[in-house]
Description:
globular
Amino acid sequence: MPATPVVSDSPGSTPLSGSTPLPGADPLAGPAAPAGPRSRGLALAVIASGMLMIVLDGSVVTVAMPAVQRDLGFSPAGLSWVVNAYLIAFGSLLLLAGRLGDLLGRKRMFLAGTAVFTAASLLAGVAGSPAVLVLARFLQGVGSAMAAAVSLGILVTLFVEPAERAKAIAVFSFTGAAGASIGQVLGGVLTDALNWHWIFIINLPIGLAALAGAKLVLPADKGSGLAAGADVIGALLVTAGLMLGIYTVVKVGEQGWTSARTLGLGALSVALLAGFVVRQATARTPLMPLRVLRPRGVRGANLVQVLMVAALFSFQVLVALYLQQVLGYSAARTGLAMLPAAVVIGAVSLGVSARLNARFGERNVLLAGLALLVGVLGLLVRIPVHADYVTDLLPVMLLAAGFGLALPALTTLGMSGAGADDAGLASGLFNTTQQIGMALGVAVLSTLAASRTDGLLADGRSRAEALTGGYHLAFAVGAGLLVTAFVLALVMLRAPGKATAPAAPQGL
């Protein structure tokens, strides 16, 4: 099968994911990989199922929030912690979990994370008070971090042939790209038909099935042992720095960007993370060897992802809020309105993204996807107060196909250059930047939207007009973030040398 036209990023570096491997010398080839394609396919199904459960859980909550608030008596500020508790735990523990997966075994970490997530889902499902639900959501974030941090690492060690790996990454990316929209549909239906408790209880059979499948089909790996990288000081620095930083960002809406609390906690977070970088440069067994960031494709892909995910918060969450708060849709109708986006994202990511990456290269496909996403938010900037779904919203949902193009390409670039010993760490890093982008999107775009809405209400506008005006501002800023991501991808992901001429992939 033809190789993707991607070249190594620097002399002597590990070949980028998707480049032609030297026979017998693929750096991602793990000795414990299943021998046959059927075994690899089953392992991919298990990984995708586990990740789909995690992604669904992150989005089903968004449409059920009003019902949760009414039932448990959350205050408006307290309700945000149903999301924030999960986000803080998930985002701050990914790097640590990824490295521990490399050291202790990625299969073991995936099993443990899925078990913690499933048990926490049961606790969330039976929660009868705000405190119990927030605790359960924090524990869900812990389990999600443990499982998600190593999932890509397992995948890239299973699929070493470029064409097969591209298809596997497309399947994995589908769980993140379309899974969020599917979660909104499922969350709305379950909340309206039953109650909000079922959005968590539904995880139990999925989690148990994922555990049983993972135990049977995932390849056993012992890891390199704690002695190979048990950097306790580094772990404490990065976990504390990320947790404090994400906490600071999600509290911006309450504290303000220039408050003494925000600036003080932000400075402390930056100091902790700077200390972590210094520690990694000098430690004998670093938690995150800085060689992981050496390939330019890795650095660029992670920066692009922060901006892209932050911008698309406005699509995944603010559009759902617009449908309910401005147009008066129910939770179930909101989910169904978002369904076309899930369908086109799935069709593109599963159907054509791997072939397009093989023919045109991940960078070019990523740029095309980002251009479509700029169009999505550009259309939303002009959305009227009394929108017609077919003429005003359906084109937006269809253009979301750009996410199905961008995410598989970006995932491949984000995992480029990861050797077998660092695959879990690279996976954790890529997932960490995703959560940082989400936290920034929550803080920046929701704060801007709320401030604009308050200003319009003070000017005497109706509630629907004020809300729509706030969303317009958030969509415009999101479009600006995507334009910046496009420019970064154009500059940072450009190969320094002459790329191998692409061969036409089979089937195109």
